[in-house]
Amino acid sequence: MQLNPWALTGIVLVAVVTFFLGHRSSRSATSTHDFLVARRTVRSRRNAAAISGEYLSAASFLGIAGIVLKDGADALWFPIGFTAGYLALMLFVAAPLRRSGAYTLPDFVEMRLGSQGLRRFSTAFVVFIGILYMVPQLQGAGLTLATILPVPVWAGAVAVMVVVAFNVIAGGMRAITVVQAFQYWLKLFAIAVPAFVLCMVFFAGGGPDGFRPLGAPAPPVFTSDTTVDVQTDVTLHVTSDTFLYAYGRTDNGPAAGPTHWTPLAPHSVSEGTTLKFLAGTPVPVVTDSVADNANWLHPASGSLTDLLQTYSLMFATFLGTMGLPHVLVRFYTNPDGKAARRTTVHVLLLLGLFYLFPTLLGALSRMYVPELLVTGKTDAAILRLPSAILPGVGGQILGAVTAAGAFAAFLSSTSGLLVSVAGVVSTDLLPGRVRDFRVATVLVALFPIALALLLRSEDISLSIGLTFALAASTFSPLLVLGIWWRKLSWPGALAGMFVGGGLVLAALVINVVSGYTGGWAPWFVNQPALITVPAAFVTTYLVSRVTGYGRPDHVHDIMLRLHAPDPLGFMRDRAVARFGQAEEKTRIAGRGRHRK
Description:
Blueprint: H1 5-26, H2 32-37, H3 44-55, H4 58-71, H5 77-92, H6 94-99, H7 105-113, H8 116-148, H9 153-204, E1 226-229, E2 234-237, E3 242-250, E4 253-261, E5 267-269, E6 274-277, E7 285-286, H10 293-297, H11 304-320, H12 325-331, H13 337-354, H14 356-368, H15 372-375, H16 381-389, H17 393-428, H18 434-454, H19 460-484, H20 490-516, H21 523-526, H22 529-545, H23 555-563, H24 575-579, H25 581-589
Antiparallel strand pairs: 1-6, 2-5, 2-7, 3-4, 3-6
């Protein structure tokens, strides 16, 4: 691949600014309280920008456009669900969680139910969810750098983790708050500016090959002779007789010239095969994509299975957000419950604004980079689109802007995940000192890098959707019932997490095995939340009803602390007991009073 110097410059600038902001903020991080919860003095608007910055991950920056390219209107449920999850968080969790005084999710579990065993069990799920969520971020980083630079895929994953680990080790939560807030605005700029420019080019004439209609019911077609190099085994289907040139292996046999494909059966293409299509040829698509534009433009145009998958996705995203450890830990940094709720309102506005643009770019990708439907690498749509519409320096500069934004997405999300997981490991498995936090950061960083290099790279949005399903099936019942139902018991919470989490983990194992053995798994393996979330809630409720002995004796005092208005003064900071009274005195007297 030809080197794009603009893209390299953009990525280097993002890394340098990230280093600079992290180093500058880390100079005031001197205590464990700084590293875990930034002294609980983060302003609502800055915290909202930081939350949005870490939440807008690879799935948002690359995955949304890619899945819109593949699935069309049905893919709009992803940005809707990702945003709506914060509505559930605001209504049910944000303020009571902050009033609990906890500093990690397992700490809240122990505060509410008084069980050390349940705390350790929840710690295991926090660590697993965090590592599982980091894997697609690192795979997305590898895809981005390999798309715009002549480097191997592993280079992007390693580069992101090195930058992130440096900032986290230097200053923990206090350092990454400023970095993540900056990276939200950088990502918004990096996706909004190309969207505006490319839309203007589209409406002005449509780029180098003229205007391309999207409303035709037929599949998209290649507007010029196109060569596609297949880098992984794929299975394609066509809607009409298709003539092409293939060199390599197709349909389990050698191919070295003209090939004729019919719509009667799918066609397998092996890794390393080169396909050449003449101008005007309908675009073959991977088997899980929508082939014709008529169905692509209309939601719910598929079968009952597609409808059930949509409902399952909504369960996962709407309830899974409140179970993501790197999201919840940011609400511990607010001064009080009112500030936590105000932060969530700002997050809803920031996310809603951002998600307009990847949806738009995904629609343009259907017209200008349809060859990605052949390879299945639809997550690269945003990176390839600028050069497809604007060949030359203009497209390279816009591509550099999007690449810098994508790199910022990987950095911010991985930073939040690494801080949350390292914080849990350092406080639950280690003594909890600053040195322990730094050791935990290094240890935790090794696992997602290894998994990112070993596992198959699936669609980023679908991979993260499975992580949301795990969070929704484990921590969502515990948080909702723990905050709003005083009869929750620790055996009930344990049983619910075991059932919900166990079912999702089983689906994850089946999904991985299926990916290596022909993709035979049914739909609910990819989107299990429709089954696992109700099962977890019902199990938690029923077991809690028959295990009254597992309820803490002072449950009424706990519920009063969670729900009493902030001015009444019932909120207690659990960090005082662990880190000493000096921490709380510093926060109250501290550096910077809370501002909106």
